Amino acid sequence: MEKEMPDDNIGKPPILEDAVFGEIQEGGVNYRDVGWKGTTVLMMKAQMGLGVLSIPQVFDTLGIIPGILIVLAISGMTCWSNWMVGVFKMRHPEVYGIDDVGRKIFGRVGFEVLGAAYALFWIFVGGSGMLSISIALNALSNHAICTAIYVIIAAALGFAFSSIQTMAKMSLLAWIGTGCIIVAVSTVTIAVGVQGHPPAVDGVIPEADYKLFGNPSFADAMAAVSTVCLSYAGTPAFFHIAAEMRDPRLYTRSLAVSQTIITVIYVVCGTVVYYYCGSHVASPALGSAGAVIKKVCYGIALPGLIVSMVFLLHLPAKQIFVRMLRGSKHLTAHTLIHWVAWLGSTFAVSLVAYIIASAIPVFSSLVSFVGALFGTPICFQPFGCMWLYDNWGSGTAGKPLSWWLKAGWSFFMILAGCFLTIAGTYGSIVSIIDSYNASGGSSAWSCANNDV
């Protein structure tokens, strides 16, 4: 992926040539500087943030046993997709993102479609991150000021910190953010277990009516499955992370550690919180142990929520930036064009995410819709196609059973991804309609307290 170019002049700094970022000289931006530990925490941050706070609600819809099985199934499927990112990147070092995969396999149409899906998905989820910060600030301040102001504050923080240029520097924030989320989720899980019951409502302690098996409608079940898919939807971001690793050969090590930790946290925390709270579980889950613990957990989680939003905005901004300047010296050199393109990308992404978060009614349901429509197709189908692209061209004659099993799995990933996309989108549309009929959605730029 990287080679050191010979020095023509003694005393001149060596030039590194990367298949994506081109020549990197001393004094320029070195994007290839993330170690395997930094890669691990970036992978965790790409997935764990908003998702873990929704798992108990998924269990309430599906029941504990089907919920755990769905989490494990989606974890296994996305783990294979994540692994394929590393394999494909090693074979095709010029690939930077999922859009490059689309161009390689499907031509210009694939490049544009997957690129647009990637950008839209992360921008919408970044907007959701802004709202999660406004919820935390409302919880901590007892709704001291207008919620729209909190969203503006979140957007300003998003622009400022998403403008950090490299994954290596972003990984420093990721350590803080991931640690805060894990501690916050662990705190509410322990508190709920010690409390042993849902929080009191008007002085009355309700029963924990947990269900081993739920009885949801098809639409509700698919909306819940889409939420799990969204919780593991960091897969397409792994291309960008792998592209900035110092040693991509350690990619699989980072993946194994991150996927294991995330799945254990999802299953353990989701099960414990739902077991003790039942249908009274809060969404986000940090409010499930009462008012005092809720403030404590949001206080701990707030830095993690900010880092999540920052990273979610950084990803589409970096994609746009690299696409604009790839192949030119301005990609890594500190020129005026470099800075205008980079800050313009982060500002545009932050602004669009802010407008979406503030202006669209029934936003939470809309995020589920975008996750199903755009998130699922960039986490499953392309990766089955990637394996077939690399392995089908040599023909099928004389292939061993193991090859056919891998091919069968690739076809399964494509078909399962198509089903989850269609069914999840349907479930999300039904949820949007039901939510709008029930409450009319939230008003644009609302001052109302969203910590409910």
UniProtKB/TrEMBL annotation:
InterPro entries: AA_transpt_TM (IPR013057)
Residue stretches making up the Amino acid transporter transmembrane domain: 35-429
First-listed, main subcellular location of the protein, grouped into a coarse class: membrane
GO molecular function, one term: L-amino acid transmembrane transporter activity
Membrane topology: Multi-pass membrane protein
Gene Ontology cellular-component terms listed: membrane
Residues that span the membrane, as ranges: 64-88, 109-133, 139-160, 172-194, 221-243, 255-276, 296-315, 336-360, 366-389, 409-433
Pfam family, one: Aa_trans
Keywords in alphabetical order: Membrane, Transmembrane, Transmembrane helix
Keyword Transmembrane carried by entry: yes
Keyword Transmembrane helix: yes
Top-level lineage group: Eukaryota
Localization annotation: Membrane
PANTHER family: AMINO ACID TRANSPORTER, AMINO ACID TRANSPORTER (EUROFUNG)
Similarity field: Belongs to the amino acid/polyamine transporter 2 family.
Name recorded for this polypeptide: Amino acid transporter
Organism (species): Aspergillus mulundensis
